Amino acid sequence: MSADTASLNPDQGRSFDPMLIRTVGFDADDTLWHSETFFAVTEDRFRALLAPWCSEEEVSERLLTRERDNLRVFGYGIKGFTLSMIETAIAASNGAIPVGAIQEIVEWGKEMLAHPVELLDGVEFVVGELEQKYRLVLLTKGDLFHQESKIAESGLADRFDAVEVMAEKDEVSYRRVLSRLEIDPATFFMVGNSVRSDVLPILNIGGQAAHIPYAITWGHEQTTSEDQTLEFPVLSSIREVPALLSARD
């Protein structure tokens, strides 16, 4: 098992124990399929578009701030990202951004929504392996329509016993979902690319989780060392998940 353990305070929480696990949960975006890469490419184009008015760093800072402010209104996903780009462009240019440029931003959003689902390496194998031993659930967040479309296109929907598109991934939301699915948190194991959304909330409600870092992490999902006071395995690939759980056999 080639897993590291992230921990600043080993006395908090409990050590990883695969013997307890009965249900395995997977995040979707950047855990099962690529997502943030497409946001990054579009943000590069957006910074270039606003070059006459702002530096690249300022554009990124303004956009992230706008996205965070808009989460409670638009939620997560490409549609909210696109609207945040439009608002940022208008504000950063003091209203001078041409109508044609606004239309270009809209087209970028449409391109992102139409992009085919690209599974990460090893996903089909790992899901197929684990579904023989565990109850599998897919827990994601974002725009309901788009997430459902991606799940269907992925070809993985039938491999999961339950699929939940959550408005937010926090302790309250996880408790609600697990209760509805009749899953005891103590027997639940979550796998995801975000420490903030996929790992810490699960640990804090008594479950277990593993982090699989993606190449790019959205600024809103980034955590500091002060946030990570609980133990959890850190994997380099989803292919390592079966080995991590193999001590149960």
Explain what you see.
With 249 residues, this protein is of the alpha/beta class. It has two domains: 4-33 and 117-248, HAD superfamily/HAD-like (Rossmann fold, 3-Layer(aba) Sandwich), CATH 3.40.50; 36-114, Putative phosphatase, domain 2 (DNA polymerase, domain 1), CATH 1.10.150. The chain has nine helices and seven strands. It has helices at 36-49, 56-74, 78-92, 99-114, 123-130, 144-154, 171-180, 195-204, 241-245, and strands spanning 4-6, 23-26, 135-141, 162-166, 188-192, 208-211, 232-234. It has a five-stranded parallel beta sheet, with helices on both faces. The longest helix is centred in the first third of the chain and has 19 residues, at 56-74. The chain is elongated and about 60 Å long. Mean pLDDT is 88; it is low at 1-13.
Can you lay out the helices and strands and say which pair or pack?
Blueprint: E1 4-6, E2 23-26, H1 36-49, H2 56-74, H3 78-92, H4 99-114, H5 123-130, E3 135-141, H6 144-154, E4 162-166, H7 171-180, E5 188-192, H8 195-204, E6 208-211, E7 232-234, H9 241-245
Parallel strand pairs: 2-3, 2-5, 3-4, 5-6
Antiparallel strand pairs: 1-7
What kind of sheet is the major sheet? Answer: 5 strands, parallel
Tell me what portion of residues adopts beta-strand conformation. 5-15%
Distance between the termini: 14 Å
Strand order of the largest sheet: 4-3-2-5-6
Annotated CATH topology of the largest domain: Rossmann fold
Proper CATH architecture of the largest domain: 3-Layer(aba) Sandwich
**N-to-C order of helices and strands:** EEHHHHHEHEHEHEEH
Mean pLDDT: 88
Task: Give the overall form.
Answer: elongated
Instruction: Please identify the structural class as seen in this structure.
Output: alpha/beta
Total beta-strand segments = 7
Query: From the structure provided, what is the oligomeric state, counting identical versus distinct chains?
Result: single chain
CATH C-level label of the largest domain: Alpha Beta
Provide a count of the helices: 9
